[in-house]
Amino acid sequence: MRTTDTFELNKEELITSSSQQMDAKFAESRYSVREKLALTCRILYDNGHDSGLAGQITARTGQPGEFLTQRLGYGFDEITAGSLLRVDEHLNVLEGDGIPNPANRFHSWVYRARPDVNCIIHTHAVYTAALGMLEQPLIVSHMDNCVLYDDVAFVAKWPGVPVGNEEGELISSALGNKRALMLSHHGLLVATGTVEEACILSLAFERAARMQLLAAAAGDIQPIPPELAKEAHDWILRPKRNSVAFDYYARRALKNPLNADCLRGD
């Protein structure tokens, strides 16, 4: 059987071929939404997103006006699939023990504004928080971070603790149609169509903030060509690639004995 001479293909053809192979080779994630959320909490904790009880993660249940979230009083390192709460958009608990973080109110605003969003992550990751203290937007100037290129909105001034409708309206409006938001003096917000994508973008966000601070300390950050950055953004952001990357981080998290209870359903 004759095979294609790949040395004769152009870049666009090679990208298309690689994408088709990826879609055909890799299966969809075997984890439930609850398990993905619990795994994401542990993954984020293991990758510098720990800030005590600050930060939230939510995902739609599939029922209108409902989402899953962690209970107030539990850190990301303690969340299990079974400990998540099912709440309505008014933060009334429909299933589970405890109460949600009152700051989840702005999640409800984002879900109302963005029907395409199925998962929201908000953390006070340390490098993002440090960058926010400078009131600087996130700069994407490296290939690894292009998954966020032209996809991060910016709130330059801190609006205060986000437990009111005013903050929810401001944050959902500032996010617009982007997948991420940089909040000065606060943290990051990622809002995407899947849990896997939200997890991967949150990791990329914090890494980009860390790289920005390191690079800025050494000199002026140089921009990258917009057309190449957009190409990299679309290549990295493919759903199957996000799923494969998520499964890698999940395997890594589950190797840690401290995360042995993560998938527990009770």
Please summarize what this structure is.
With 266 residues, this protein is α+β, with helices and mostly antiparallel strands.
Observed structural traits:
single chain; 266 residues; alpha+beta; L-fuculose-1-phosphate Aldolase; 8-stranded mixed beta sheet; 41% helix; globular
Overall tally of structural domains = 1
How many individual β-strands? Answer: 8
CATH superfamily: Class II aldolase/adducin N-terminal domain
How many helix segments?
8
**Which strands sit side by side, in order, in the main sheet?**
4-3-2-1-5-8-7-6
What is the molecular shape?
globular
Describe this structure as you would to a colleague:
With 266 residues, the protein is α+β, with helices and mostly antiparallel strands. It has a single domain, classed as L-fuculose-1-phosphate Aldolase, CATH 3.40.225.10. It has eight helices and eight strands. It has helices at residues 11-25, 33-46, 105-113, 126-133, 165-175, 195-218, 226-236, 239-254, and strands at 56-60, 66-69, 85-88, 93-95, 119-123, 152-155, 180-183, 187-192. α3 packs across α5 (165-175).
Give the helix/strand layout:
Elements: H1 11-25, H2 33-46, E1 56-60, E2 66-69, E3 85-88, E4 93-95, H3 105-113, E5 119-123, H4 126-133, E6 152-155, H5 165-175, E7 180-183, E8 187-192, H6 195-218, H7 226-236, H8 239-254
